[in-house]
Each structure stands twice: as structure tokens, then as C-alpha cells.
Amino acid sequence: MPNYTWDHIHLRTPDAEATATWFERMLGAEVLRSNPHGVARIDVKLGGAMIFLAPVTPGDGVNAPPVTPYQGLDHFGLKVSDLDTVVADLKAKGAEFTMEPNVPRPGIKICFLRGPQGISIELLDRDPKYT
Description:
4-stranded mixed sheet; 2 helices; 2 domains; single chain
């Protein structure tokens, strides 16, 4: 069996700069700017994974973002420690939560926030004794 590892997530956005700034301000992501082939590019590095930001302009033929929940890729999850402190920090920054912290089963506490263009992001705090 081949060994698969994550390379990137690709997000289409009408405002790559604002999207990158949101990930940097809210989640501490590293914003990477480059200019390959003379074309400005913005990517974000978050939790060891790359998020490629692809600009969308009117007339590109790209559909509007779906309203959550929908079929297909629903959200991505980020593991954190001390979820309550993380949530308080994000709320102080103005983050919008779609699900407040809760414990769906012993050993895990979760919540969801809304990112740019309605992206759904789950934050998880796992108790190692349950894994």
C-alpha cells in the first residue's frame, strides 16, 4: 500500500489577501507570498499543512460557496489544547462560532467556527487517555 501524506488544501477566494489575513490573525498561520512566473501568489501555512489560495474573479465561472451543511467536503479540523482558552481568544478577535464548545463523547471537546467564504473549521481538544 502506498504511503499517503498531506500536501495541501486548495481554497478559491475572491480576496486572497483578506483570507490570508484572517488565517494569520485568527489562527496564527504563516502567510507566504511569492511571485512565480511574474504572478503574485499568496499561500498560508497552518499546523504544518499548506493552504493554497486561488483568486476568483467575476466571470471565472466559479460557483458561489455552498451553505453549510452540504454534500462533499464539509469542514477541516484542527487539534488544539485547552479549547476553552482558544475559543475565548478567538471570540476576542471577533471569530464567529457556528457551534459552541461541547463534549459529544468522553475524551473529546469540539466546536466549529466560520472562516472566510463560509469555510467550516472544527477545533478539537482530545484527551490522550481516550485515544
